[in-house]
Task: structure prediction
Amino acid sequence: MNILKVKTKHEMSCLAADIMAAQIIKKPDSVLGLATGETPIEMYDNVAKRNIDFSRVRTVNLDEYVGLDGANENSYRYFMDTNFFSKLNIKKENTNLPCGTATDLDAECARYNALLESIGPRDIQLLGIGLNGHVGFCEPNTEFVPNTSVVSLTESTIKANSRFYDDISLVPKQALTMGIRQIMDAKHILLIANGPAKVEIVEKAFYGKITPAVPASVLQLHPNVTVIVAEN
Ligand code: PGA
Result:
């Protein structure tokens, strides 16, 4: 595990953008695993400004809220379209997220599992980390959940996400998320964390015990992980 500590969010974003850009230049038909949240926004913008050819790139996102469709500005489909895909020459059909409005959520999990299987291991998987140690929406648990599943979000996550809503009662309570085995299947994992609030959980996840109570701690077992932490 390569842990890089930088001072500012800007440095973190530039460094992460360099790594993602290098991946696509090296392999123009790369498969990228992508993440949402506040942390990657500047990195996405930085990558988009480089005019890299995304015409052969395919993407799979980590998660989506149950009940929100792509037109909803709090959905992760909307986030990805707005902050990244609309700025690239990527083909929309090559971008994948779980569908939060599927009528049969179990069938949607099965569809996403099959998609991940057919697309093969991601060349790079971008991750953020939640204050409670979640990756994707794999919340603290008594076991590592391997595959895509429907999860109930913890109070800590709902509280953290409420900054994007007028009222905490409007924050979705459930999400579809890629599983831990699927996250670990990526060839290279790039985790970015910004700000003093994340320093403690980064310490716990990457220097502490490997436990499903801190889902990100499992990354200690992955052979190729880069963590960039902005400590400002
Ligand atoms: P954030 O979320 O980037 O908005 O802090 C990260 C996460 O919860 O994975």
User: Anything to note?
Assistant: The chain has a mean pLDDT of 97. The pocket of 2-phosphoglycolic acid is lined by residues 37-39, 128-130 (CB under 6 Å). Helices lie at 9-26, 41-48, 76-83, 105-119, 155-161, 180-184, 196-207. The chain has seven helices and ten strands.
